[in-house]
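To fix ideas, we reproduce below a protein record of this kind.
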Amino acid sequence: MSNMATENAASQRIASLLDAGSFVEIGGGVTARATDFNMQKTETPGDGVITGYGVIDGNLVYVYSQDASVLGGSIGEMHAKKIAALYDMAMKMGAPVIGLVDCAGIRLQEATDALDGFGKLYLKQSMASGVIPQITAIFGNCGGGLAVIPALTDFTFMETEHAKLFVNSPNAIPGNTVQKCNTASAKFQSSEAGLVDETGTEEEILAKIRALICMLPCNNEEDVSYEECTDDLNRLCEGIENAAEDTAVALSSISDNGVFFEVKKDYAKDMVTGFIRLNGMTVGAVANRSKVYNEDAEVTAEFDGSLTAAGAGKAADFVRFCDAFNIPVLTLTNVTGFDASTCGEKALAAQTAKLIYAFTDATVPKVNVIIGKAYGSAYVAMNSKSIGADMVYAWPNAEIGMMDADLAAKIMYADSDMQTQREKAAEYRALQSSPASAAGHGYVDAVISPADTRKYIIGAFEMLFTKREDRPAKKHGTV
């Protein structure tokens, strides 16, 4: 039952997001306390933010929605206190927080009180991180210090046409203008900055949040993300080998009823991250990708199969989220080595280290399927048996080793003729690069038919359901 007095954009968003009639407002009578600059003469209903709770498909969630009709939705002392109080309640109940942002920024008339409010919000979000899922959706302005709010949450959505997300506005960046590069746009923040998981219309975003909430645990101790599986557990994934290049398609093929919720879809497209369902259970998926196909089966992007700094960082953040919320992790590995570029070199070692650390530190069930090439240290970083994968499968065409067999033969037999090099390449392929060889050394648990992938993965996660694994006693790692 809603207590919202006015039907404005902020309240309409809440009504569209939640199950009909389920919203209960908290703090609807709160107004600003500031009196400087004749603030007492300004009406501030709710102090510019609607806060409360409701349900999404029966799942309890806490929501705040900023009201741009009240001082531009700017954050003042009481505005921040309302959101902070909402976080306190969400933490007690163990339920997600969803923030619907439409804000002019910090309220200048309440400078230090508003700054303290920002700090309190940062504190609450930091404390809640890894305890309850946090989701932000941006429908208007989200600038300056407020841009940190979505960065502190787990998932961020952004309206395509009117939303702006920035620390510094495009025109405030030396040498830049909004016409030259709109750094505040949904396109830039999703594809270049990688801060936004998905963009779309207001209706599309609210629908996506509803779908995501139904796939996520409500907190880090209780899990209501299961649903009854109506798909055949032994269903064959016919033709899945044809999707080895675009693993978003492959993951949909593996998942119950084709469900795949991709996150950070437009950023570092050479790495796929998202959620699938296996026997009704939510599983986090990470996969290398060399081609992106659209709905008309046309190639819209192409990559060389290498591990990039952006892709490694994207995957590392995702694995850390999954581990925090006890979500099992599946990887589809098809990587030829490391990205070779001046730009990538600046961060490649550091981001690869973060990826290795994320996989190694994760105690959730971890399953890896090698679907193509698995070369060098880049393969080791992709959830290999060496860094802690519980089960590793490989398709028969997989190539596992240091590098391509032909190249290895050319290096080892540089002074030999072509015929010798070809013979040695074939020998190297059989002895060092084949999945049978990797299985023989214990690095692959089974070589499986691509069509049987779903069956084997479900079986592995069922077996790993009761996994318990300790880590060395320490405050936290430093990678």
